[in-house]
Design the sequence.
């Protein structure tokens, strides 16, 4: 995993940015508010979707996976520098869109490199190892944000540190990342799973050719349920987390350093989940995991409705509990879905999975902040929890039609 040292620094940078950016837009930039941040994040996510297809196709077509990783990290570094030079809200929005567009360029190449460096039976372990390493970076970024804000450093200083970290990720990747000599592992799996129900679901959403399958068979196997479940889970997650830093700042009146600490705790839960997944990957069923995690996340989000009725101490304890458990179970879900995507997405379509989740994420980025600002955070929590429950129903329909009892 030496190839992914640069990715750790990339995650440190974006772990710091994950809390810094929404607070920076809503509290520092003139004219910025919760709805504006939601609009910017949503526009960036939606615009990045077609680029996910393009990056995935290009890296598979050229087999120059290293090139697209370096392109991503170098472009993000330059764009972050441009972001730090202006306080104009419109220009910041445009630059952020391009940051997201170029950031997704490395995802398909990264997934392929992991898949080609592990046998099919060890894919979950490979993705868990990568996720654990980069989650350490994310945790480090959040801890860095907590420490620096506690010491009184400004947002401009934190942005400069993010730029330096992003540049370090480019340099380290240029040194350690190399293209695989051969790329055949996914091809073997595609042959083995050529009639996989999940493959048909992902391909259907991507608008691929399905002339060889009759409509009755598609209806019976409920591939729409799988696709709908994946998008709803992504939507609910984004709807919940996009306005969450502002919720802690406004509703609980927490300092920026405390908000960083809460998200640090969430990421520690993720890290524990990835380590657990690495050790027990052979005992984890991908479809079962997606089903169980979706309903449990819905319950956790719904629990935050009671924060407003508790004392400050109990509200913090409830928030910590929700974030830790939510992070842990998301790690299980993330690794399972990544492994599944590499089994079913054919060569040349490596960007399909990123685009699939991006569609749900884009809707959530927009609707979460708008609901929170216009109707209140309680309604946002209800909407997010409802989407998690609907994703559970969709996954359950798909699982039942595969004659697997998960619950």
Sequence:
């Amino acid at each position: 995993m030496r190839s992914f040292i640069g990715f750790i620094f990339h995650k440190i940078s974006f772990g710091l940015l994950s809390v810094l950016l929404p607070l920076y837009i809503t509290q520092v930039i003139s004219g910025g508010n919760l709805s504006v941040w939601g609009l910017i994040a949503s526009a960036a996510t939606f615009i990045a979707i077609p680029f996910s297809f393009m990056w995935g196709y290009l890296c598979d077509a050229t087999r120059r996976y290293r090139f697209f990783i370096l392109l991503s990290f170098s472009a993000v570094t330059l764009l972050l520098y441009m972001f730090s030079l202006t306080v104009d809200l419109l220009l910041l929005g445009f630059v952020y869109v391009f940051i997201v567009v170029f950031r997704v360029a490395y995802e398909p190449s990264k997934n392929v490199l992991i898949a080609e460096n592990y046998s099919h039976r060890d894919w979950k372990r490979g993705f868990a190892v990568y996720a654990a390493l980069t989650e350490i970076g994310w945790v480090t970024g959040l801890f860095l944000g907590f420490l620096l804000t506690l010491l009184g450093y400004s947002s401009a200083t934190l942005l400069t540190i993010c730029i330096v970290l992003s540049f370090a990720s480019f340099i380290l990747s240029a040194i350690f990342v190399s293209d695989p000599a051969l790329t055949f592992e996914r091809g073997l799996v595609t042959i083995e799973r050529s009639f996989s129900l999940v493959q048909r679901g992902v391909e259907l959403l991507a608008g691929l050719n399905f002339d060889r399958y009759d409509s009755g068979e598609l209806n019976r196997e409920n591939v729409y349920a799988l696709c709908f479940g994946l998008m709803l889970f992504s939507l609910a997650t984004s709807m919940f987390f996009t306005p969450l830093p502002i919720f802690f700042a406004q509703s609980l009146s927490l300092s920026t350093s405390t908000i960083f600490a809460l998200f640090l705790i969430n990421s520690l839960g993720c890290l524990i989940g990835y380590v657990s997944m690495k050790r027990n990957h052979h005992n984890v069923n991908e479809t079962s995991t997606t089903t169980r995690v979706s309903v449990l996340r819905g319950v956790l989000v719904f629990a935050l409705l009671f924060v407003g009725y508790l004392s400050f101490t109990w509200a913090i304890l409830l928030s910590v509990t929700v974030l830790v458990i939510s992070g842990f179970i998301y790690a299980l879900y993330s690794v399972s879905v990544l492994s599944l995507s590499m089994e079913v997405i054919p060569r040349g379509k490596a960007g399909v999975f990123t685009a699939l989740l991006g569609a749900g994420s884009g809707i959530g980025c927009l609707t979460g902040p708008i609901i929170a600002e216009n109707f209140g955070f309680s309604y946002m929590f209800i909407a997010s929890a409802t989407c998690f429950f609907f994703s559970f129903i969709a996954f359950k329909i798909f699982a039942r039609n595969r004659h697997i009892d998960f619950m």
Observations:
- The chain is about 80% helix and 0% strand.
- The chain has one domain: 2-401.
